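=== RUN LOG ===
request id: a7f3
mode: sequence -> structure
chains: 1
length: 196
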Amino acid sequence: ATSEQLMGFVTKYHNAMLLDVWVQGVGSLLTVTFFIALVSLSGAAHRFAGWMTLLASTISLAVTMMDVVFGIAAVEATAYGHPITGIASLDFTNVFVHVFPIVPAPALFLSIGAVLLGSRLLPRALGYLALALGLAFAVVGFFGLFNPAALGVTIVLLIGQELWIVAAAFTLILIRGRSATVSAVEPAVDQPAIAT
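=== RESULT ===
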């Protein structure tokens, strides 16, 4: 794109672009918070898979925030009359679709899959699906460096990732809601008094 085309595009979609990076940043924070909650609820905080999930969450959030920074830089640079910086920033944002499947996505889904398979928090199928997503991201991340057609597969995997997160969240809500209902209905068991 020429600098004039970029300035016209950013001027026209200024607010939409800023909303997009805000949703991306906040959405990533909420996603890693969910993954950390899964580690905590599964009792895996002190297991290797739990630590790897925490590390992968940190990497994922850092990569996303770098993408957010370049997205904001593209908008702001163009708005302040620096189209070359705006073009460079937009170019950098296009790199992240290749970076995410190389390390953050495989590390996150392989580790959370291991966490879930090591606990009874969620059905094992979700753990196996997480492992499959992690492996698929790793393969696409590698081949995507050499084949531009892999971008379409990456997008499909990103959609699969979001569907997995929604399925895991709803399953967790249903399971936790059911267990809370059962414990609320069960009579309280008298505990013997402890002598002091």
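=== NOTES ===
Helices lie at 3-12, 14-41, 48-79, 83-93, 96-99, 104-117, 124-143, 150-185.
The CA atoms of residues 42 and 120 lie 7 Å apart.
=== END ===
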